[in-house]
Amino acid sequence: MAKNRYSIVITKFALKKLxxxxxxxxxxxxxxxxxxxxxPRPIGAKKLVNRPGYRIRWTDYxxxxxxxxxxxxxxxxxxxxxxxxYE
Length: 87
Known about the structure:
The protein has 3 helices and 5 strands; from the N terminus they run βααββββα. The chain has 87 residues and is an alpha+beta fold. It is globular. 17% of the residues are buried.
């Protein structure tokens, strides 16, 4: 039985912030985002406490996203350095 793939939606806000990151960081975070198609809750993903959604880490950078299981959609709402991401 084939496993369902999730669609990835990246908000304009997240896309703008991703575009401002260094090329190596941008490439790695983009790879991590599209890995969410196969598994939206990978090992290390944490449920956010003060807002809806989840976060995954890569070094000092974070990807914040929500999951809609009924629609098989992952929406990336923010990306960036950990010092700026939770403001």
